[in-house]
Design a protein that fits this description.
The chain has a single domain, classed as Trna Endonuclease, Chain: A, domain 1, CATH 3.40.1350. The radius of gyration is 14 Å and the shape is globular. The chain is of the alpha+beta class. A five-stranded mixed sheet has the order 1-2-3-4-5, sandwiched between helices. The chain contains two helices and five strands, in the order αβββαββ.
């Protein structure tokens, strides 16, 4: 199985986990010129932007470590575009979560990072 197919498979597993955790999934693979957000959903009152990272081994570090400052800024820009496009009120509570998949171990990190410019 190639890397893209493996990533899609893991993203399916993450979606199932999020759904069982009470998240309502609004969009998957939302794209803009600035980049992409893997999953957008609602968790209670929060509009949540999820970054899914998968690592099959430890050769390149953990999956969570792969979401650095530059990636966080890019996600925030795409989130701003999504909110504008969907006319989300300014006071909508927003959260940025990371779902890190290392091999078969999945970790949902709520509030993984805060809004970054």
């Amino acid at each position: 199985m190639n890397t893209r197919a493996k990533g899609a498979q893991k993203e399916e597993q993450v979606c199932a986990c999020l759904l069982s955790g009470g998240v309502k999934i609004l969009e998957r693979n939302f794209r803009s010129r600035q980049g992409e957000i893997d999953i957008i959903g609602c968790d209670e009152e929060y509009l949540v932007f999820f970054e899914v990272k998968y690592r099959g081994g430890t050769g390149k570090g953990s999956a969570a470590e792969a979401v650095g400052a530059a990636k966080q800024r890019k996600i925030c820009k795409v989130a701003d575009y999504y909110r504008m496009l969907h006319h989300c009120p300014e006071d909508t509570p927003v959260r940025f979560d990371v779902v890190a998949v290392d091999g078969e171990k999945m970790e949902w990190i709520k509030n993984a990072f805060y809004y970054a410019r």
